[in-house]
Amino acid sequence: MMTDLMMYALYLVILLLLAWPLGRYMANVFTMEKTIFDPVFQPLERFIYRLTGVNPEQEMNWRQYAAALVWFNVAGAAAVFLLEMSQGLLAWNPAGMPGVYPWHLAFNTAISFMTNTNWQAYGGEATMSYFTQMTALTVQNFASAAVGMAVAVALIRGLTRKKAAAIGNFWVDLVRGTFRILLPLSIVFTLILVQQGSIQNLSPYLTVHTLEGAEQTLAMGPTASQEAIKILGTNGGGFFNANSAHPFENPTPLTNFLQVISIFLIPAGLVFAFGHMARERRQGYAILATMMLLFCLMLAGTYLSEMNGNPILAGLGIDQPTSMEGKEVRFGIAGSALFATVTTAASCGAVNAMHDSFTPLGGFFPLLQMKLGEVIFGGVGAGFYGILLFVVLTVFIVGLMVGRTPEYLGKKIEAQETKMATLGILIPAVTILIGSAIAVVTGPGTSAILNPGPHGLSEIVYAFASAAGNNGSAFAGLSANSPFYNLLLAAAMLFGRFGVIIPALAIAGSMAEKKVSPPGPGTFPTTGWLFVLLLAGVIIIVGALTFLPVLTLGPVVEHLLMLQGTMF
Length: 568
Hints:
Elements (H helix, E strand, L loop, with lengths): L1 H29 L7 H15 L9 H24 L17 H12 L9 H4 L2 H31 L9 H27 L9 E4 L5 E4 L4 H10 L20 H25 L3 H28 L2 H5 L16 H14 L14 H12 L10 H21 L4 E2 L2 E2 L2 H26 L2 H4 L6 H16 L14 H30 L16 H35 L5
Antiparallel strand pairs: 1-2, 3-4
């Protein structure tokens, strides 16, 4: 256990050491300050703006920003859908795969990758050609991550600008986020993955003979490049069905460690960028401390649950403390627990172990993180603007407690901001509960359950939490490739994505127009440990009040029954 704790401590230290300079660089990128990469990227950006007719000097109000964002995403989803349906006619398809069928699977996948969810109701190596993987899915991995970053930056501008009508230019933020941040990091990470053993080719699938003499087909493909942006962009969609448990995607313990670093890297960097852009770094530190506090609690819960294992397996003569059910030997319990906690905290969805095989409480904590809105670091951009909604709510509650108009960064939090924050928090939660309720009372919903009892309920709730939280991971016991689940989960992805983005942009526009007032004797500080604890408490309490009943009926009941010798 001591070795595991040292690895976790090393993980957090390296993460912060890398995120701090990245945050400073990101602040410079989005405030148009000079960077060392300007000679490389400025000519490319000018060419793109001329080609697309974008005026980079013209800024947008929040409605214009939101409209551009929505239309860009609609076009992206349509392009992915068309490429999927026609892939049998396109190049780089050595396995001769036909178009993605049925249509509702292609539709679900298009919505999934557009919303940064990457929910996969298919096996990548058996469904998608190289061309589709590269031109549709990988491109959307960049685009959806850049959109999340753009929303976060627009919200920062709204909070920090003084009496402004605009919050930036969506197209400029999209281009700069893609080319100056996501692309360079992905190139570096791709090279590291290739060096460690991840494949990157356009070769036909290989047929090999096993030691027993049987034939086995090994899928090939441009894996490392998709893996890099899948992780850095908190997308999560695997090139292979086994995702990051596959040795071609995640070949060594070192790549496993680097992947969990990379998942949190940009979300953590954005918090540092917020401190720089607000010109008050302690504001960023307070949010970062809240994220780290909640993350450590969730990691401890997952790790201890898996270390204690399943007493039923112990009764069968299996060494309980080191039970490896559903886990890769090269990662172990510690590496699997860390990955599961990170990927569900960050709305990434990549997995290196089967969450469905975790102990009931081992699955409880990843599920809870998604239900909290995945604001514990969260997805690229999405985690930051998600936790800012909780910041607005916390400041409002504190204002009620002290009898003053709540303020944040010197700007008053009034009815408009509170309503939008409440909407942004409630829409994903309501989506999860309504979607799960529909599934558990209808034949198409319950017929997909492979495990009865409370575990089956957890499989359904996990699916809708993953979709509405734009995570993409799954309890594998649910057969979700059906018209019912493909369409209902696609709707959950849309509500979960844009039901938060639109309120966040509305807050950005409203706050940008307000003047900044100097702090007074009654101003509640939002930079100390008291605020950190209050913010963490509000996040947990809101999640507990909303989801405690269904969590009790699912993993909690399953855990109690497990102790009595019953499995599902």
